[in-house]
Amino acid sequence: MHKQKSIIGGLILIAAGAFILLAQTVPGFADFLDMGRQWPLIIVAIGSLFFVGAFLGTAELAIPGSIITGLGLLFYYQNLSGNWASWAYAWALIPGFVGIGMLITGTLDKTQREMRADGRRLILISTILFLVFGAFFNFPAGLGRFWPVLLIIGGLYLLFRNRRTRDGLK
Questions:
Q1: pLDDT tens, position by position, 24-34
Q2: Number of domains the chain is built from
């Protein structure tokens, strides 16, 4: 297993280095990609390489793969839209990226099934945080003054979930 991780890590570094070397040395390569706008795709590609490693047998690589890919996609959106102020609430997606990686890890590695439930919980928490902070900072537009409604919905969910568990319905 250690040898396989070393091979996958080596392939990731070689691919990243080759891509960057091409961008620096081949005259039209960087212009073709318009690196000023497309640079987050390099981060997405590196994250995708971690996913390849996860699907080739080292399931735990799905967690850093999902974090790196998720951040790359977030940077790509922000770079294209110029909406860098979205970091005020977009940071709340990071636990969700971890949750996605845990969900994939638990699916790929049968010995780590409990990670699936933990991953789903993190995705739920991340989504709620994103919506609450997003509504507070006016995303989506128009929800700004109604963000307390999200808190009320979350509280009702917790109350009914606890009641269901207490009554033995689980």
A1: 888 777 666 66
A2: 1
